[in-house]
Amino acid sequence: MKKWRYYLLVPALVIGVFSGRMAWSQNTPAGSTAPTAPTSAAKPAMAGTPKPTAKININTADEATLMTLKNIGKSKASAIIDYRQKNGPFKSVDDLTKVKGIGDKTLAQLKDQLTIE
Fold it and tell me: Is the pTM here over 0.70, yes or no?
């Protein structure tokens, strides 16, 4: 086998084996190694949590809802809820910086996704 074919064939076979499906067309003539173009059905689904479309009310949101926000994990979501239970509802979105672990940079990233209404 010519060297250049080896460098093209082996990675394609490895990718096919590890992805669980072959990337080669069933309709290619014998001896042809032309890969098929990927279809929209073959594309993997996007991983991760969906981005919220509506603003999240930090005075009423539960832990799971708060965790949909970027850079807010389980511990920060719990801290927001604990702060809210101890000190009452937030009077403005800027009050979120009073929660341990949430600073000005985090607030700046989230501000357009949050509300108190």
Answer: no
